[in-house]
Protein backbone atom coordinates (compact mmCIF):
# COMPACT_ATOMS: atom_id res chain seq x y z
CA UNK A 1 0.00 0.00 0.00
CA UNK A 2 1.39 3.41 -1.04
CA UNK A 3 1.66 6.34 1.31
CA UNK A 4 -1.15 8.13 -0.52
CA UNK A 5 -3.44 5.09 -0.24
CA UNK A 6 -2.55 4.73 3.43
CA UNK A 7 -3.38 8.38 4.03
CA UNK A 8 -6.65 7.99 2.11
CA UNK A 9 -7.55 4.92 4.16
CA UNK A 10 -6.65 6.71 7.35
CA UNK A 11 -8.99 9.57 6.42
CA UNK A 12 -11.89 7.60 5.00
CA UNK A 13 -11.52 4.37 7.07
CA UNK A 14 -10.66 0.79 5.96
CA UNK A 15 -11.95 -0.56 2.65
CA UNK A 16 -15.13 -2.54 3.25
CA UNK A 17 -16.41 -5.68 1.58
CA UNK A 18 -19.95 -6.16 0.31
CA UNK A 19 -21.11 -7.45 3.73
CA UNK A 20 -19.81 -4.35 5.48
CA UNK A 21 -16.77 -6.01 7.09
CA UNK A 22 -13.21 -4.74 6.51
CA UNK A 23 -11.83 -6.20 3.29
CA UNK A 24 -8.64 -7.55 4.94
CA UNK A 25 -10.65 -9.40 7.60
CA UNK A 26 -12.94 -10.87 4.94
CA UNK A 27 -9.96 -12.07 2.91
CA UNK A 28 -8.39 -13.71 5.99
CA UNK A 29 -11.69 -15.37 6.79
CA UNK A 30 -12.07 -16.68 3.23
CA UNK A 31 -8.51 -18.09 3.28
CA UNK A 32 -9.15 -19.84 6.60
CA UNK A 33 -12.34 -21.38 5.23
CA UNK A 34 -10.49 -22.53 2.10
CA UNK A 35 -7.71 -24.14 4.17
CA UNK A 36 -10.29 -25.81 6.44
CA UNK A 37 -12.11 -27.32 3.45
CA UNK A 38 -8.81 -28.63 2.07
CA UNK A 39 -7.93 -30.11 5.46
CA UNK A 40 -11.32 -31.81 5.73
CA UNK A 41 -10.84 -33.34 2.29
CA UNK A 42 -7.53 -34.96 3.22
CA UNK A 43 -8.52 -35.74 6.84
CA UNK A 44 -9.65 -39.34 6.08
CA UNK A 45 -6.31 -40.07 4.40
CA UNK A 46 -4.36 -38.52 7.27
CA UNK A 47 -6.39 -40.54 9.77
CA UNK A 48 -5.80 -43.72 7.80
CA UNK A 49 -2.04 -43.09 7.65
CA UNK A 50 -1.99 -42.28 11.36
CA UNK A 51 -3.80 -45.49 12.35
CA UNK A 52 -2.11 -47.90 9.95
CA UNK A 53 1.42 -46.45 9.77
CA UNK A 54 2.38 -43.84 12.38
CA UNK A 55 0.79 -45.48 15.44
CA UNK A 56 2.18 -49.00 14.73
CA UNK A 57 5.68 -47.56 14.31
CA UNK A 58 5.33 -45.56 17.53
CA UNK A 59 4.10 -48.67 19.35
CA UNK A 60 7.04 -50.67 17.99
CA UNK A 61 9.52 -48.04 19.17
CA UNK A 62 7.89 -47.98 22.61
CA UNK A 63 7.91 -51.76 23.00
CA UNK A 64 11.63 -51.84 22.21
CA UNK A 65 12.39 -49.96 25.46
CA UNK A 66 9.31 -50.65 27.62
CA UNK A 67 10.06 -52.72 30.75
CA UNK A 68 7.43 -51.97 33.41
CA UNK A 69 6.46 -55.58 34.02
CA UNK A 70 9.31 -56.28 36.49
CA UNK A 71 8.81 -53.19 38.64
CA UNK A 72 5.01 -53.55 38.58
CA UNK A 73 4.99 -57.26 39.47
CA UNK A 74 7.84 -57.25 42.01
CA UNK A 75 7.73 -53.69 43.46
CA UNK A 76 8.92 -54.56 46.97
CA UNK A 77 11.69 -56.80 45.65
CA UNK A 78 12.99 -54.06 43.36
CA UNK A 79 13.17 -51.61 46.28
CA UNK A 80 14.82 -54.16 48.58
CA UNK A 81 17.48 -54.96 46.00
CA UNK A 82 18.66 -51.35 46.03
CA UNK A 83 20.54 -52.11 49.27
CA UNK A 84 22.12 -55.31 47.91
CA UNK A 85 25.84 -54.63 47.58
CA UNK A 86 27.67 -57.99 47.40
CA UNK A 87 26.43 -59.50 44.15
CA UNK A 88 28.61 -62.55 44.64
CA UNK A 89 26.42 -63.69 47.56
CA UNK A 90 22.65 -64.26 47.80
CA UNK A 91 20.79 -61.18 49.07
CA UNK A 92 19.59 -60.65 52.62
CA UNK A 93 16.50 -62.05 54.29
CA UNK A 94 14.78 -58.71 53.64
CA UNK A 95 14.96 -59.32 49.90
CA UNK A 96 13.53 -62.81 50.25
CA UNK A 97 10.72 -61.43 52.40
CA UNK A 98 9.89 -58.79 49.77
CA UNK A 99 9.98 -61.49 47.09
CA UNK A 100 7.66 -63.63 49.21
CA UNK A 101 5.03 -60.89 49.43
CA UNK A 102 5.32 -59.93 45.77
CA UNK A 103 5.28 -63.48 44.46
CA UNK A 104 2.31 -64.50 46.60
CA UNK A 105 0.22 -61.61 45.29
CA UNK A 106 1.40 -62.12 41.70
CA UNK A 107 0.46 -65.80 41.91
CA UNK A 108 -3.02 -64.88 43.13
CA UNK A 109 -3.44 -62.57 40.14
CA UNK A 110 -1.82 -65.23 37.92
CA UNK A 111 0.77 -62.82 36.54
CA UNK A 112 3.88 -64.38 38.08
CA UNK A 113 4.54 -66.35 34.88
CA UNK A 114 4.63 -63.10 32.87
CA UNK A 115 7.53 -61.65 34.80
CA UNK A 116 9.22 -65.04 34.59
CA UNK A 117 8.86 -65.05 30.82
CA UNK A 118 10.28 -61.52 30.62
CA UNK A 119 13.34 -62.39 32.70
CA UNK A 120 13.75 -65.68 30.87
CA UNK A 121 14.74 -63.67 27.77
CA UNK A 122 17.80 -62.57 29.72
CA UNK A 123 18.52 -65.72 31.78
CA UNK A 124 17.40 -69.15 30.64
CA UNK A 125 15.44 -71.11 33.23
CA UNK A 126 13.91 -68.17 35.11
CA UNK A 127 10.49 -68.75 33.56
CA UNK A 128 10.15 -72.27 34.99
CA UNK A 129 11.59 -71.02 38.30
CA UNK A 130 8.81 -68.44 38.66
CA UNK A 131 6.08 -70.86 37.59
CA UNK A 132 7.25 -73.42 40.12
CA UNK A 133 7.60 -70.82 42.87
CA UNK A 134 4.17 -69.38 42.14
CA UNK A 135 2.69 -72.77 42.95
CA UNK A 136 4.88 -73.34 46.01
CA UNK A 137 4.87 -69.94 47.72
CA UNK A 138 1.45 -70.56 49.23
CA UNK A 139 2.76 -73.67 50.99
CA UNK A 140 5.52 -71.94 52.95
CA UNK A 141 5.80 -72.78 56.66
CA UNK A 142 5.01 -69.19 57.57
CA UNK A 143 1.74 -70.32 59.13
CA UNK A 144 3.93 -70.76 62.23
CA UNK A 145 3.68 -66.99 62.74
CA UNK A 146 -0.09 -67.05 62.24
CA UNK A 147 -0.51 -69.75 64.90
CA UNK A 148 1.76 -68.03 67.43
CA UNK A 149 -0.02 -64.68 67.12
CA UNK A 150 -3.40 -66.44 67.48
CA UNK A 151 -2.15 -68.26 70.59
CA UNK A 152 -0.95 -64.98 72.03
CA UNK A 153 -4.34 -63.33 71.49
CA UNK A 154 -7.34 -64.85 69.70
CA UNK A 155 -8.26 -61.42 68.33
CA UNK A 156 -5.32 -61.68 65.89
CA UNK A 157 -7.38 -64.21 63.93
CA UNK A 158 -10.23 -61.72 63.51
CA UNK A 159 -10.04 -59.88 60.14
CA UNK A 160 -12.11 -57.00 61.62
CA UNK A 161 -9.46 -56.38 64.25
CA UNK A 162 -6.88 -56.20 61.47
CA UNK A 163 -9.03 -53.72 59.55
CA UNK A 164 -9.36 -51.51 62.64
CA UNK A 165 -5.61 -51.55 63.27
CA UNK A 166 -4.72 -50.75 59.68
CA UNK A 167 -7.07 -47.75 59.68
CA UNK A 168 -4.84 -46.11 62.30
CA UNK A 169 -2.18 -44.01 60.56
CA UNK A 170 0.16 -44.20 63.54
CA UNK A 171 0.05 -48.01 63.39
CA UNK A 172 0.74 -47.98 59.66
CA UNK A 173 3.70 -45.65 60.19
CA UNK A 174 5.10 -47.90 62.92
CA UNK A 175 4.58 -51.10 60.89
CA UNK A 176 5.32 -50.17 57.24
CA UNK A 177 6.05 -53.72 56.05
CA UNK A 178 2.85 -55.00 57.65
CA UNK A 179 0.79 -52.16 56.19
CA UNK A 180 2.14 -52.88 52.71
CA UNK A 181 1.47 -56.60 53.01
CA UNK A 182 -2.03 -56.02 54.40
CA UNK A 183 -2.92 -53.59 51.60
CA UNK A 184 -1.71 -56.16 49.08
CA UNK A 185 -3.81 -58.87 50.68
CA UNK A 186 -6.91 -56.66 50.67
CA UNK A 187 -6.37 -55.93 46.99
CA UNK A 188 -5.96 -59.64 46.22
CA UNK A 189 -9.07 -60.53 48.23
CA UNK A 190 -11.24 -57.95 46.47
CA UNK A 191 -9.83 -57.92 42.92
CA UNK A 192 -8.59 -61.48 42.40
CA UNK A 193 -10.83 -63.54 44.69
CA UNK A 194 -13.88 -61.22 44.75
CA UNK A 195 -14.31 -61.73 48.51
CA UNK A 196 -14.87 -59.44 51.48
CA UNK A 197 -11.65 -58.77 53.47
CA UNK A 198 -13.76 -58.45 56.64
CA UNK A 199 -15.00 -62.02 56.21
CA UNK A 200 -11.82 -63.79 55.06
CA UNK A 201 -8.88 -65.03 57.14
CA UNK A 202 -5.80 -62.86 56.80
CA UNK A 203 -3.08 -64.66 54.82
CA UNK A 204 0.05 -66.02 56.49
CA UNK A 205 2.37 -63.60 54.72
CA UNK A 206 0.70 -60.66 56.50
CA UNK A 207 1.49 -62.27 59.86
CA UNK A 208 5.04 -62.82 58.63
CA UNK A 209 5.33 -59.11 57.85
CA UNK A 210 3.91 -58.29 61.30
CA UNK A 211 6.51 -60.48 63.00
CA UNK A 212 9.33 -58.91 60.98
CA UNK A 213 8.17 -55.37 61.81
CA UNK A 214 7.80 -56.05 65.53
CA UNK A 215 11.08 -57.97 65.73
CA UNK A 216 13.05 -55.27 63.89
CA UNK A 217 11.38 -52.07 65.11
CA UNK A 218 9.35 -52.93 68.19
CA UNK A 219 6.28 -50.87 69.00
CA UNK A 220 5.83 -47.90 71.33
CA UNK A 221 2.36 -46.78 70.30
CA UNK A 222 -0.96 -46.75 72.13
CA UNK A 223 -2.27 -50.17 71.03
CA UNK A 224 -2.06 -52.61 73.96
CA UNK A 225 -2.52 -55.51 71.60
CA UNK A 226 0.53 -54.54 69.54
CA UNK A 227 2.57 -53.71 72.64
CA UNK A 228 1.89 -57.19 74.00
CA UNK A 229 2.84 -58.75 70.66
CA UNK A 230 6.04 -56.69 70.45
CA UNK A 231 7.15 -58.04 73.83
CA UNK A 232 6.33 -61.63 72.90
CA UNK A 233 7.85 -61.93 69.40
CA UNK A 234 11.35 -62.34 70.83
CA UNK A 235 10.33 -65.82 72.01
CA UNK A 236 8.57 -66.78 68.75
CA UNK A 237 9.71 -69.78 66.74
CA UNK A 238 11.00 -68.48 63.40
CA UNK A 239 11.43 -69.70 59.85
CA UNK A 240 13.95 -68.62 57.22
CA UNK A 241 12.33 -67.38 54.03
CA UNK A 242 15.59 -67.94 52.17
CA UNK A 243 15.44 -71.62 53.09
CA UNK A 244 11.79 -71.78 52.12
CA UNK A 245 12.66 -70.54 48.63
CA UNK A 246 15.64 -72.89 48.47
CA UNK A 247 13.30 -75.84 49.19
CA UNK A 248 11.30 -74.89 46.11
CA UNK A 249 14.41 -74.60 43.94
CA UNK A 250 18.10 -74.23 44.76
CA UNK A 251 18.35 -71.63 41.97
CA UNK A 252 16.92 -69.09 44.41
CA UNK A 253 20.31 -69.17 46.12
CA UNK A 254 22.00 -68.17 42.86
CA UNK A 255 22.92 -64.45 42.99
CA UNK A 256 22.64 -64.30 39.19
CA UNK A 257 18.84 -64.66 39.44
CA UNK A 258 18.53 -61.60 41.67
CA UNK A 259 21.10 -59.75 39.60
CA UNK A 260 18.91 -60.28 36.54
CA UNK A 261 15.89 -58.94 38.43
CA UNK A 262 17.94 -55.93 39.60
CA UNK A 263 19.40 -55.12 36.17
CA UNK A 264 16.00 -55.25 34.44
CA UNK A 265 13.99 -53.52 37.18
CA UNK A 266 13.88 -50.00 35.58
CA UNK A 267 10.69 -49.09 33.72
CA UNK A 268 12.67 -48.51 30.53
CA UNK A 269 15.67 -50.47 29.33
CA UNK A 270 18.22 -50.52 26.54
CA UNK A 271 18.53 -54.27 26.98
CA UNK A 272 16.51 -55.18 23.89
CA UNK A 273 18.59 -52.94 21.64
CA UNK A 274 21.82 -54.25 23.16
CA UNK A 275 20.71 -57.84 22.54
CA UNK A 276 19.85 -56.88 18.96
CA UNK A 277 23.50 -55.95 18.37
CA UNK A 278 24.96 -58.98 20.21
CA UNK A 279 25.58 -57.17 23.51
CA UNK A 280 24.02 -57.60 26.93
CA UNK A 281 23.22 -55.45 29.94
CA UNK A 282 24.80 -56.72 33.18
CA UNK A 283 25.41 -55.39 36.67
CA UNK A 284 28.92 -54.42 35.54
CA UNK A 285 27.67 -52.52 32.49
CA UNK A 286 27.47 -53.44 28.81
CA UNK A 287 29.27 -56.63 27.81
CA UNK A 288 29.42 -58.82 24.66
CA UNK A 289 27.07 -61.75 24.42
CA UNK A 290 28.50 -65.24 24.64
CA UNK A 291 29.71 -66.49 21.27
CA UNK A 292 26.88 -68.99 20.81
CA UNK A 293 24.33 -66.14 21.12
CA UNK A 294 25.96 -63.70 18.69
CA UNK A 295 23.63 -64.09 15.75
CA UNK A 296 21.97 -60.75 15.09
CA UNK A 297 24.85 -58.77 13.61
CA UNK A 298 25.52 -61.73 11.31
CA UNK A 299 21.87 -61.71 10.25
CA UNK A 300 21.91 -57.95 9.63
CA UNK A 301 25.06 -58.25 7.49
CA UNK A 302 23.61 -61.22 5.61
CA UNK A 303 20.34 -59.39 5.02
CA UNK A 304 22.10 -56.34 3.60
CA UNK A 305 24.47 -58.39 1.45
CA UNK A 306 21.81 -60.67 -0.01
CA UNK A 307 19.40 -57.78 -0.59
CA UNK A 308 22.11 -55.97 -2.57
CA UNK A 309 22.86 -59.13 -4.58
CA UNK A 310 19.15 -59.60 -5.32
CA UNK A 311 18.86 -55.96 -6.32
CA UNK A 312 21.87 -56.30 -8.65
CA UNK A 313 20.46 -59.49 -10.17
CA UNK A 314 17.16 -57.76 -10.84
CA UNK A 315 18.98 -54.88 -12.57
CA UNK A 316 21.00 -57.24 -14.79
CA UNK A 317 17.93 -59.29 -15.75
CA UNK A 318 15.33 -56.52 -15.75
CA UNK A 319 17.13 -53.89 -17.81
CA UNK A 320 17.28 -55.89 -21.09
CA UNK A 321 13.65 -56.97 -20.65
CA UNK A 322 12.47 -53.41 -20.02
CA UNK A 323 14.54 -52.18 -22.97
CA UNK A 324 12.93 -54.80 -25.20
CA UNK A 325 9.42 -53.92 -24.00
CA UNK A 326 10.01 -50.20 -24.56
CA UNK A 327 11.34 -50.60 -28.12
CA UNK A 328 9.12 -53.34 -29.54
CA UNK A 329 5.86 -52.50 -31.33
CA UNK A 330 3.04 -51.78 -28.90
CA UNK A 331 1.06 -54.92 -29.87
CA UNK A 332 3.96 -57.24 -29.04
CA UNK A 333 5.17 -55.33 -25.97
CA UNK A 334 1.69 -55.45 -24.42
CA UNK A 335 1.65 -59.24 -24.74
CA UNK A 336 5.10 -59.52 -23.18
CA UNK A 337 4.09 -57.08 -20.41
CA UNK A 338 1.23 -59.40 -19.51
CA UNK A 339 3.78 -62.20 -19.09
CA UNK A 340 5.80 -59.93 -16.78
CA UNK A 341 2.71 -59.26 -14.67
CA UNK A 342 1.54 -62.86 -14.70
CA UNK A 343 3.42 -63.83 -11.49
CA UNK A 344 1.35 -61.27 -9.57
CA UNK A 345 -1.70 -63.42 -10.27
CA UNK A 346 -0.09 -66.39 -8.54
CA UNK A 347 0.23 -66.78 -4.79
CA UNK A 348 3.64 -65.97 -3.34
CA UNK A 349 3.53 -69.22 -1.40
CA UNK A 350 2.86 -71.19 -4.58
CA UNK A 351 5.73 -69.51 -6.45
CA UNK A 352 8.14 -70.17 -3.58
CA UNK A 353 7.02 -73.79 -3.28
CA UNK A 354 7.57 -74.20 -7.01
CA UNK A 355 11.17 -73.09 -6.59
CA UNK A 356 11.62 -75.71 -3.88
CA UNK A 357 10.65 -78.33 -6.43
CA UNK A 358 12.88 -76.87 -9.14
CA UNK A 359 15.99 -76.30 -7.02
CA UNK A 360 16.26 -79.44 -4.92
CA UNK A 361 19.06 -81.90 -5.72
CA UNK A 362 16.63 -84.29 -7.36
CA UNK A 363 14.71 -81.44 -8.95
CA UNK A 364 14.18 -80.29 -12.51
CA UNK A 365 17.21 -77.96 -12.77
CA UNK A 366 19.68 -80.52 -11.48
CA UNK A 367 18.13 -83.20 -13.71
CA UNK A 368 18.62 -80.99 -16.78
CA UNK A 369 22.23 -80.19 -15.82
CA UNK A 370 22.95 -83.90 -15.37
CA UNK A 371 21.21 -84.75 -18.66
CA UNK A 372 23.28 -82.27 -20.69
CA UNK A 373 26.46 -83.39 -18.92
CA UNK A 374 27.37 -80.20 -17.06
CA UNK A 375 27.03 -81.86 -13.64
CA UNK A 376 27.79 -85.42 -12.54
CA UNK A 377 24.89 -87.40 -11.16
CA UNK A 378 26.74 -88.03 -7.89
CA UNK A 379 27.75 -84.38 -7.55
CA UNK A 380 24.51 -82.47 -7.97
CA UNK A 381 24.41 -78.78 -7.11
CA UNK A 382 23.09 -77.63 -3.71
CA UNK A 383 20.67 -74.92 -4.83
CA UNK A 384 18.15 -75.09 -2.00
CA UNK A 385 18.26 -74.39 1.75
CA UNK A 386 21.13 -71.93 1.32
CA UNK A 387 21.83 -68.40 0.12
CA UNK A 388 21.80 -69.47 -3.53
CA UNK A 389 18.22 -70.69 -3.29
CA UNK A 390 17.09 -67.52 -1.56
CA UNK A 391 18.75 -65.27 -4.16
CA UNK A 392 17.30 -67.21 -7.10
CA UNK A 393 13.76 -67.38 -5.72
CA UNK A 394 13.64 -63.76 -4.55
CA UNK A 395 15.14 -62.46 -7.79
CA UNK A 396 12.30 -64.14 -9.67
CA UNK A 397 9.69 -62.78 -7.24
CA UNK A 398 10.98 -59.19 -7.19
CA UNK A 399 11.98 -58.92 -10.86
CA UNK A 400 8.66 -57.31 -11.95
CA UNK A 401 9.25 -54.52 -9.42
CA UNK A 402 12.44 -53.68 -11.31
CA UNK A 403 11.05 -54.09 -14.82
CA UNK A 404 7.99 -51.88 -14.39
CA UNK A 405 9.79 -48.65 -13.28
CA UNK A 406 12.45 -49.20 -15.96
CA UNK A 407 9.85 -49.78 -18.65
CA UNK A 408 7.88 -46.73 -17.53
CA UNK A 409 10.94 -44.46 -17.76
CA UNK A 410 12.24 -45.96 -21.03
CA UNK A 411 8.92 -45.28 -22.71
CA UNK A 412 9.48 -41.56 -22.17
CA UNK A 413 12.91 -41.57 -23.89
CA UNK A 414 12.47 -40.24 -27.46
CA UNK A 415 13.98 -42.68 -30.05
CA UNK A 416 15.07 -39.68 -32.11
CA UNK A 417 17.88 -38.99 -29.60
CA UNK A 418 19.61 -42.27 -30.41
CA UNK A 419 19.02 -41.83 -34.14
CA UNK A 420 20.51 -38.34 -33.97
CA UNK A 421 23.61 -39.69 -32.21
CA UNK A 422 24.04 -42.37 -34.86
CA UNK A 423 23.61 -39.82 -37.64
CA UNK A 424 26.49 -37.87 -36.11
CA UNK A 425 28.77 -40.90 -36.35
CA UNK A 426 28.27 -42.67 -33.02
CA UNK A 427 28.32 -46.47 -32.96
CA UNK A 428 25.38 -48.43 -31.57
CA UNK A 429 27.21 -48.95 -28.25
CA UNK A 430 28.27 -45.30 -27.98
CA UNK A 431 24.76 -44.08 -28.77
CA UNK A 432 23.32 -46.40 -26.13
CA UNK A 433 25.91 -45.71 -23.42
CA UNK A 434 26.25 -41.95 -23.94
CA UNK A 435 22.67 -41.05 -24.88
CA UNK A 436 20.13 -43.71 -23.95
CA UNK A 437 21.51 -45.15 -20.71
CA UNK A 438 21.86 -41.83 -18.79
CA UNK A 439 18.19 -41.11 -19.44
CA UNK A 440 17.22 -44.51 -18.03
CA UNK A 441 19.16 -44.06 -14.76
CA UNK A 442 16.15 -42.57 -12.90
CA UNK A 443 14.25 -45.80 -13.63
CA UNK A 444 17.18 -47.86 -12.35
CA UNK A 445 17.20 -45.80 -9.15
CA UNK A 446 13.46 -46.24 -8.62
CA UNK A 447 13.66 -49.98 -9.27
CA UNK A 448 16.66 -50.43 -7.00
CA UNK A 449 15.02 -48.62 -4.09
CA UNK A 450 11.80 -50.58 -4.56
CA UNK A 451 13.49 -53.98 -4.84
CA UNK A 452 15.97 -53.38 -2.04
CA UNK A 453 13.36 -52.23 0.49
CA UNK A 454 11.08 -55.13 -0.40
CA UNK A 455 13.97 -57.59 -0.20
CA UNK A 456 15.17 -56.71 3.31
CA UNK A 457 11.64 -57.16 4.67
CA UNK A 458 10.90 -60.55 3.08
CA UNK A 459 10.59 -63.55 5.37
CA UNK A 460 8.31 -66.13 3.69
CA UNK A 461 10.66 -66.96 0.81
CA UNK A 462 13.86 -67.09 2.91
CA UNK A 463 12.01 -69.21 5.47
CA UNK A 464 11.01 -71.79 2.85
CA UNK A 465 14.13 -71.95 0.69
CA UNK A 466 16.86 -70.31 2.81
CA UNK A 467 17.67 -73.08 5.26
CA UNK A 468 20.25 -72.19 7.92
CA UNK A 469 22.42 -69.81 5.88
CA UNK A 470 19.83 -68.11 3.68
CA UNK A 471 17.46 -66.58 6.23
CA UNK A 472 17.08 -62.84 6.82
CA UNK A 473 16.75 -60.74 9.98
CA UNK A 474 13.03 -60.55 9.21
CA UNK A 475 12.79 -64.30 9.85
CA UNK A 476 14.16 -63.75 13.35
CA UNK A 477 11.72 -60.91 13.92
CA UNK A 478 8.83 -63.17 12.89
CA UNK A 479 10.15 -65.88 15.23
CA UNK A 480 10.20 -63.55 18.22
CA UNK A 481 6.71 -62.25 17.44
CA UNK A 482 4.96 -65.58 16.87
CA UNK A 483 7.04 -68.23 18.68
CA UNK A 484 9.23 -66.89 21.49
CA UNK A 485 6.79 -63.99 22.10
CA UNK A 486 9.73 -61.70 22.86
CA UNK A 487 8.01 -58.68 21.35
CA UNK A 488 10.49 -56.25 22.90
CA UNK A 489 13.43 -57.81 21.06
CA UNK A 490 11.38 -58.09 17.86
CA UNK A 491 10.52 -54.37 18.16
CA UNK A 492 14.19 -53.50 18.72
CA UNK A 493 15.27 -55.53 15.68
CA UNK A 494 12.53 -53.92 13.60
CA UNK A 495 13.51 -50.45 14.80
CA UNK A 496 17.15 -51.02 13.88
CA UNK A 497 16.09 -52.30 10.46
CA UNK A 498 13.91 -49.21 9.98
CA UNK A 499 16.77 -46.90 11.01
CA UNK A 500 19.12 -48.75 8.66
CA UNK A 501 16.75 -48.33 5.73
CA UNK A 502 16.27 -44.63 6.48
CA UNK A 503 20.04 -44.16 6.71
CA UNK A 504 20.57 -45.85 3.35
CA UNK A 505 17.77 -43.78 1.85
CA UNK A 506 19.44 -40.62 3.18
CA UNK A 507 22.81 -41.72 1.79
CA UNK A 508 21.22 -42.43 -1.60
CA UNK A 509 19.61 -39.00 -1.57
CA UNK A 510 22.94 -37.34 -0.74
CA UNK A 511 24.92 -39.25 -3.37
CA UNK A 512 22.44 -39.65 -6.24
CA UNK A 513 19.57 -37.37 -5.32
CA UNK A 514 16.05 -38.62 -4.74
CA UNK A 515 14.77 -36.05 -7.25
CA UNK A 516 16.48 -38.07 -9.98
CA UNK A 517 14.32 -41.12 -9.22
CA UNK A 518 11.34 -41.45 -11.52
CA UNK A 519 8.59 -43.97 -12.03
CA UNK A 520 7.70 -42.66 -15.46
Précis, in short:
This protein has helices at 3-12, 23-63, 68-73, 75-80, 93-108, 112-120, 126-136, 143-152, 159-166, 169-174, 176-192, 204-217, 224-232, 241-248, 255-263, 271-276, 296-327, 330-341, 348-359, 364-371, 387-410, 415-423, 428-456, 460-465, 473-482, 487-511; strands at 279-282, 285-288. By secondary structure, it is mainly α.
Per-chain topology:
Blueprint: H1 3-12, H2 23-63, H3 68-73, H4 75-80, H5 93-108, H6 112-120, H7 126-136, H8 143-152, H9 159-166, H10 169-174, H11 176-192, H12 204-217, H13 224-232, H14 241-248, H15 255-263, H16 271-276, E1 279-282, E2 285-288, H17 296-327, H18 330-341, H19 348-359, H20 364-371, H21 387-410, H22 415-423, H23 428-456, H24 460-465, H25 473-482, H26 487-511
Give start-end ranges of low-pLDDT stretches: none
CATH class of the largest domain equals: Mainly Alpha
Number of domains: 4
Provide the gyration radius in Å.
Answer: 36 Å
Which structural class do you get from the secondary structure elements?
mainly alpha
Q: Helicity, in percent?
A: 55-70%
Q: Would you identify the CATH architecture of the largest domain?
A: Orthogonal Bundle
Amino acid sequence: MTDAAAQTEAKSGPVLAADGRPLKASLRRALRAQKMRALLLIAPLLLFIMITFILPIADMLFRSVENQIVSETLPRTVVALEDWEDHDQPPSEDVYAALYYDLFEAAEFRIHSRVGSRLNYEMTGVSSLFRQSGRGVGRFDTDIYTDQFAELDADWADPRVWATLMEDESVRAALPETASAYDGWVNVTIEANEDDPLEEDVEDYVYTALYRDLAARGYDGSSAMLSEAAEAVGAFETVSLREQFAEIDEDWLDPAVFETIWVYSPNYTAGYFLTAVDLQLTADGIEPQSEDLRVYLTLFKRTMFMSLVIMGSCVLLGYPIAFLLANLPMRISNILLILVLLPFWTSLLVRTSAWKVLLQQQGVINDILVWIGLVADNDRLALINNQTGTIIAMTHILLPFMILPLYSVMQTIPPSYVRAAKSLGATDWTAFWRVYFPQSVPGIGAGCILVFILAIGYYITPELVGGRTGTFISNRIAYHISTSLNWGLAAALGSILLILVLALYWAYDRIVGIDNVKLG
